[in-house]
Amino acid sequence: MNSEMTDMTQNPAPLIGFIGLGHMGGHMSANLIAAGHRLLVHDLNAVAEQRLVDLGAERADSIAALAAACDVVITMLPGPPQVEAVIREMAPLLRPDAVWVDMSTSTPAAARVVDELLAERGVSRLDAPVSGMAKGAASGMLQIFVGGEATVLARVRPLFDVMGDPERVLHVGGLGAGYTVKLMINQLWFSHLVATAEVLTVGVKAGVDLGVLHTSLLASPAASSFLANDLPSVFGGDYDESFAMKLACKDLGLSIDLGRDVGVPTPLSAHVEQIYRTALAKFGPDAGEMIPVRLAEEYAALELRQAKAAEVAA
Ligand code: NAD
Predict the structure, then answer these.
(1) DSSP class of 242
(2) Which of 21, 52, 76, 242 to mutate to test the pocket of ligand 1 (most atoms within 8 A of CB)?
(3) Less CB within 10 Å around the terminal CB: N or C of the chain?
């Protein structure tokens, strides 16, 4: 085994394969190219591929060709069905010293289907899903939650430090732990959104100015990163189309499945999922992940709009 081929700290020019060049993967792969890495890319969408070719990547003729050529393969795909299909195709072809890093929001089960084959062939893998939205992907400041062996993480760490905030590349446990942590983060974030939308629409309907209410919540024990950093785009009418409702509902479904698998009741999560699915049915699969706020706005017959949160008068 030639482990130097995939030791990013030893060899400055291994070939990186990147599959899934959408809202997230497009930026992540562009940042790797900008940092001087050699990339072979593949996506079902030729336009997405061409954007990366224009930045200096090579286009792979097929998943098989990419798998056979690369030292490290990164996947950033919609969810478990796509991850499973792609890795089943790649597994028999990956180089014996290669590392497969799945950064999709997926489940341990989808990756586990190839574990035996990868082990036989001397291929390592990590799950490394991310948080930080498309803007974090664009700025190279994602949070990355890594499951797998520390020695494998050390080999590809320089790639994570390009795509993410080096301070927030967290090794969260063995294989599968990254997927689990990411699903729990999203479940809590979506729950924050639904709860916050209710509170704001009731408060504004009861006569409090939106900016005053927002500033008051931020100054209170109920403050959150969601209130401070993510919600304000809604005040300008932006429900974040860079993360589609079809993916948000996929994540909520996976989170609830996980609760079922481990035998823990999740009545609140199930209710949040139903609210999200109602919003998806009403506004469509490509609507932004914050569109459930719009449901609360419709119930209250108002819009949460304001250019900038107002200051509370002293
Ligand atoms: P996206 O739909 O924009 O991109 C997915 C890409 O994968 C598309 O370009 C699609 O053509 C490609 N693809 C699908 N199946 C394929 C296949 N079989 N072979 C090759 N290419 C294929 O999705 P995204 O928003 O970039 O999200 C990607 C992953 O990251 C998802 O798991 C999502 O849950 C997660 N995520 C997204 C965000 C966000 O804000 N968008 C944030 C954190 C995590």
Answers:
(1) T
(2) 76
(3) C
Q: What is the DSSP letter of 142?
A: E
Per-10-residue mean pLDDT of the chain, 314 residues long, equals 47 87 98 98 98 98 97 98 97 97 96 94 98 97 98 98 98 98 98 98 98 98 96 96 97 97 98 98 98 98 77 40
**18, 33, 134, 143, 300 from 171: Cα distances, Å:** 22, 24, 22, 11, 43
Ligand 1 contact, 243 CB (< 6 A): yes
CB atoms within 10 A of CB 101: 26
Question: Active-site positions?
Answer: 182
Pocket test for ligand 1, best of 75, 90, 143, 243 (most atoms within 8 A of CB): 243
Q: Ligand 1 atom 1: the closest Cα is on which residue?
A: 22
**Residue 104 CB less than 6 A away from ligand 1:** yes
Q: How far is the CA of 305 from the centre of ligand 1 (A)?
A: 30
How many CB atoms lie under 10 A from the CB of residue 215?
16
Check: pTM over 0.90? Answer yes or no.
Answer: yes
Cα separation of 200 and 193, whole Å? 11
